[in-house]
């Protein structure tokens, strides 16, 4: 239906103008409602929406609008229904839409279906209808310049400017419209807090020069390299610094081997009792008061003489129950892993698959004497050795546990053999791993299975010694 000036009005613009002038449109049961009986408050039986602003006209409720949802235009009934329910909560809005659809499809209903707009679409629509926003990503632009001029004029009225008039300057290029923003609306805009995306937030206000970082890094990274490539003649006359001599001696020290424990609460050996077991040869339950070691300790040290590795002095072993602080090259120092057969223990390891892990590291399972070794442990093959200790007798305490010493000696023997096969006796760590024969049985019913050959690569950082000490 056309207006007095011959311009075909848009349903969305008409609804926006009607809301701005506080003249709510009236749902009717006919296109040309003349009687009071034609008006109705129910959208279930109404077929048209009659406007009185800016001109008296009527639009079918099933007419498509320029509001697009899911790539389809939304009908006027759904738009008007969303406006009616603008102040209700989302669950109430959805329930009301379902109820209206049932009434539309019932006998006597107008037919059709109300489209349920999602929260973002409904919020954007209400903001545009109230005049708080002149643009909407869900509303297609008008086609003709005349209708575009009417849209700009309606924005002025909706924003609160009485008798809003759009000014079209003669210097406008391509029909671009110039408009005056209402002072009240401008005051609201000035009070808004600008929201930014990740690009605008991370963008600095000025360029930052990081050349000083490069210079500082060169002091640490390039000093030794430059000295080795370009020896200074003056250095020969300078007597050696004793502290530098100590550091150079420390850098040539053999790195400490690492033994990983299981963090499982069901493990017989934990940080609280591992030292008394491997060092003193006595098994004490981890939760027993005799264990002595604090359960909060996250690192322990044990010294052990391994003649085939280094006969002159004992080796210091580092014991931890998690590789969280590991650097990649620390894995070449791991010589044994105590396990309970639970694969979640290896999730943070370099080798997460048990077969791969125990090709590179000796696996040790410790259980109670008389109990079977778990099938999962047996399935990991010759890379895992199993040991059994006598069950704890609370009345006897640590007395009479002479078999524990045999078990411990057997474990150290397997660790020593594994380290020697990986080259620890030649140059510390790494090297080609040679196949080892199965270890013989150890006294006291201590059954052993030995790992197959593998390879350990990488160098060991001396920094770990100072970090964990």
UniProtKB/TrEMBL annotation:
Its main location: nucleus. Gene3D superfamilies: RNA polymerase II accessory factor, Cdc73 C-terminal domain. Residues 254-417 form the Cell division control protein 73 C-terminal domain. InterPro entries: Cdc73/Parafibromin (IPR007852), CDC73_C (IPR031336), CDC73_C_sf (IPR038103). It is found in: Nucleus. Keywords: Elongation factor, Nucleus, Protein biosynthesis, Transcription. GO terms for biological process: positive regulation of transcription elongation by RNA polymerase II; transcription elongation by RNA polymerase II. It comes from the Eukaryota. Residues 229-249 have a biased composition (Polar residues). One of its GO terms (cellular component) is Cdc73/Paf1 complex. Residues 158-168 have a biased composition (Low complexity). GO terms for molecular function: RNA polymerase II complex binding; translation elongation factor activity. Residues 158-178, 221-252 are annotated as: Disordered. Belongs to the CDC73 family. This is Pol II transcription elongation factor subunit Cdc73. It comes from Lasallia pustulata.
């Amino acid at each position: 239906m056309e207006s007095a000036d011959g311009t075909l009005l848009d349903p969305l613009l008409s609804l926006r103008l009607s809301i701005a002038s506080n003249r709510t449109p009236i749902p009717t049961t006919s296109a040309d409602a003349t009687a009071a009986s034609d008006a109705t408050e129910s959208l279930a039986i109404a077929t048209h929406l009659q406007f009185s602003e800016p001109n008296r006209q009527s639009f079918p409720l099933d007419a498509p609008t320029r509001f697009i949802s899911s790539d389809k235009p939304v009908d006027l009934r759904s738009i008007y229904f969303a406006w009616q329910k603008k102040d209700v909560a989302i669950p109430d809005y959805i329930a009301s839409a379902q109820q209206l659809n049932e009434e539309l499809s019932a006998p006597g209903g107008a037919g059709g279906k109300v489209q349920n707009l999602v929260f973002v679409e409904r919020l954007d629509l209400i903001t545009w209808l109230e005049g708080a926003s002149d643009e909407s990503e869900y509303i297609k632009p008008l086609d003709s310049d005349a209708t575009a001029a009417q849209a700009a004029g309606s924005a002025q009225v909706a924003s609160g400017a009485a008798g809003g008039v759009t000014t079209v300057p003669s210097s406008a290029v391509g029909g671009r419209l110039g408009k005056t923003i209402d002072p009240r609306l401008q005051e609201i805009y000035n009070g808004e807090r600008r929201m930014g995306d990740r690009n605008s937030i991370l963008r600095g206000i000025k360029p930052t020069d990081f050349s000083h970082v490069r210079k500082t890094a060169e002091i640490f990274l390039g000093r030794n390299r430059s000295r080795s490539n370009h020896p200074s003649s003056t250095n020969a006359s300078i007597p050696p610094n004793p502290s530098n001599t100590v550091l150079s001696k420390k850098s040539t020290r053999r790195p400490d081997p690492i033994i990983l424990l299981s963090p499982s609460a069901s493990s017989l050996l934990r940080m609280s009792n591992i030292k008394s077991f491997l060092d003193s040869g006595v098994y004490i339950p981890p939760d027993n008061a005799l264990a002595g070691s604090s359960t909060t300790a996250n690192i322990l040290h044990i010294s052990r003489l391994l003649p085939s590795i280094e006969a002159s002095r004992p080796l210091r072993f580092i014991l931890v129950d998690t590789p969280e602080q590991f650097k990649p090259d620390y894995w070449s120092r791991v010589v044994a892993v105590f396990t309970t057969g639970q694969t979640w223990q290896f999730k943070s390891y370099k080798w997460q698959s048990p077969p791969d892990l125990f090709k590179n590291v000796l696996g040790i399972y410790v259980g109670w004497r008389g109990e079977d070794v778990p099938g999962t442990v047996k399935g990991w093959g010759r890379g895992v050795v199993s040991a059994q200790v006598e069950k704890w007798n609370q009345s006897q305490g640590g007395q009479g546990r002479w078999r524990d010493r045999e078990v411990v000696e057997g474990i150290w023997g397997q660790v020593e053999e594994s380290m020697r096969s990986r080259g620890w006796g030649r140059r510390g760590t790494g090297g080609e791993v040679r196949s080892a024969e199965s270890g013989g049985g150890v006294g006291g019913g201590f059954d052993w299975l030995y790992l197959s050959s593998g390879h350990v690569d990488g160098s060991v950082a001396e920094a770990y010694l100072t970090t964990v000490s």
